[in-house]
Amino acid sequence: MSTDLATETARTAPQARTGMSRRTIGNVVLGVVLLTVPLWLPLVGGYTDLASRVLIYALAAMGLNLLLGFTGGLSFGHAAYFGLGAYGVGLMLKYETHSLFLALGVGTLVGGLAATLLGPIAVRRRGIYFSMITIAIGQMFYFIAIRWNTLTGGYDGLSGFARPKFAGPGHLLSMGPTGMYYLVLAAFAIAALLLWIVLNAPLGHAFVAIRENHKRLTFLGVSTQRYIAISFAISGFIAALAGGLNALLDGFASPNLLNYSMSGDFLIIAVLGGMRNFYGPLAGAVIFVLVRDYVSSVTDNWMSVIGLVFVVSVIFFPMGVLGFFNRKSGS
Amino acid sequence: MSLLVLNDVGRRFGALQALSGISLSVEAGELRAIIGPNGAGKTTLFNLISGYFPPTDGSIVFGGEPITAGTPTALVKRGIIRTFQITEIFLSLTVRENLRVAVETAMGLNLRPWISAAVRTVVMNQVENLAEIVRITAKLDRVAGELSHGDQRVVEIGIVLAKSPKLLLLDEPTAGMGDEETHHMTDLIRRLNKDQGITMLFVEHDMAIVFGIADRITVLDNGRMLAEGNATEIAANPRVQAAYLGHAA
């Protein structure tokens, strides 16, 4: 038996070691690239707000992907929580507070609590019915936003609020594009870290097991609905945080942020980048936002180009862009 | 006292009477085979005992307590664990990850969004233990979906063992296996029963296996109990011979 164990260790150890260091190197490189964006992005013809948008969409899609890629629940309504976060931040800044963090906190809480309360309704069904319920719930908020003119500004959206100054050490820092970018990056890093911890804990293992085979888990005595609802809630909080940041970036909240087409954008981002991959949504967001930004400066028909990119990528890289590269380097 | 008692249990699906008048008792530590031709109601019986759906008649008692209306989740808590005709495992995860989620479920850790290194070590040691018991240690880091059918069944047994079952229900554990895999599985069933003392009910079509390892055998035919007894009694039973060989006997 001891020989068994020895050969076993010999076989797995080097693999584990290179795997670990490759992941660490990847994270460090990603960290350096993201931290230095304001320095190098203008050199390659980009602008800092564009990078903020990429990270905001990546954050929302990463939140959605906890439910989609890791728990196996296809939500078509996550724009609702994104939009609630945006309106929450906008309304707080317009009427209640000049504190950036209070506004962002309230926005995240409003969207996240909505997902926490409504998730349990959707998870009563699985598959296509689950998706239909998420659309219906999401559209409810969209129609409330366009009808409740006095509060939300209706079709015109909510304007009249601006990014407050950020209380730095000893003085107020103005939140220009660079300051905004680092705020978004900090939010992204914290959310990614929390997601990483959860996915490597029993809770995350349970999510993945539900995606793989909910019947097996049920017959181990786990009430899977409860876990899908928890995944739904966490992903709703993250989408709401992203929505709040989006409102800060634009100084504006549009009802389109609540619409199912926005939910579709987040789904495209997650699937495009690779929904089985932790950083897949980030890769997807880079492609999505850059294509949109570049093509929309050439033609209004940018959505057709995104659609084409999406169809081609689903046919040729069904596991997403990162899934494709991972497999190549893995084998 | 018998571990599992069924009193006059029946199940109707609309006009179809799938099972009726099933009365049997299984002693603790027993290895019981359920046999019968296709459509005899063997899987329906498993579904009733494991709470997949309730019986329409009769009652079921487990460990002295009624469980007739139990849900799968509630019955698993009491220690009734099952496998399925079609292997139900987590296909795109490694064997280690398959066993890990089962161990975490058994330890009641599922809701924990983080765990200490100490707890993680306890979990991983238990995973290694299970792998030793079912003898899959060499394949712990393989993706379950890439294993042979027989190994996948072994993984499933490892998963259900994590829950320390009092009563293990195995639905056709050797179906579709080659000779060597069948031998491995039969050996595993016998070891779990003798070494771990797990009471087991298994549905099986291979008569050599049934007569070779079962303590007692229950024969179903057309939703009714045809016979019950040890291997010698069953082999000599003219009604069983008739059900299996046509009306020659």
Automatic annotation (TrEMBL), chain A:
Molecular functions (GO terms): branched-chain amino acid transmembrane transporter activity
Membrane topology: Multi-pass membrane protein
Keyword line: Cell membrane, Membrane, Transmembrane, Transmembrane helix
Subcellular compartments: Cell membrane
InterPro entries in the record: ABC_transp_permease (IPR001851), LivM-like (IPR043428)
Sequence intervals crossing the membrane: 24-43, 55-80, 100-121, 128-148, 180-207, 227-246, 266-290, 302-325
GO cellular component, one term: plasma membrane
Name of this chain's protein: Amino acid/amide ABC transporter membrane protein 2, HAAT family
Organism: Acidiphilium rubrum
Taxonomic placement: Bacteria, Pseudomonadati, Pseudomonadota, Alphaproteobacteria, Acetobacterales
TrEMBL record, chain B:
Keyword annotations from UniProtKB, A to Z: ATP-binding, Nucleotide-binding, Transport
Cellular-component GO terms for this entry: plasma membrane
Keyword field contains Nucleotide-binding: yes
One MF term in the entry's GO annotations: ATP binding
Domain ABC transporter: residue ranges: 4-247
A Pfam family the protein falls into: ABC_tran
SUPFAM superfamilies assigned: P-loop containing nucleoside triphosphate hydrolases
InterPro entries (alphabetical): AAA+_ATPase, ABC_AA/LPS_Transport, ABC_transporter-like_ATP-bd, ABC_transporter-like_CS, BCA_ABC_TP_C, P-loop_NTPase
Biological-process GO terms, alphabetical: D-alanine transmembrane transport; L-alanine transport; L-isoleucine import across plasma membrane; L-valine import across plasma membrane
Gene3D superfamilies hit by this protein: P-loop containing nucleotide triphosphate hydrolases (3.40.50.300)
Name of the featured protein: Amino acid/amide ABC transporter ATP-binding protein 1, HAAT family
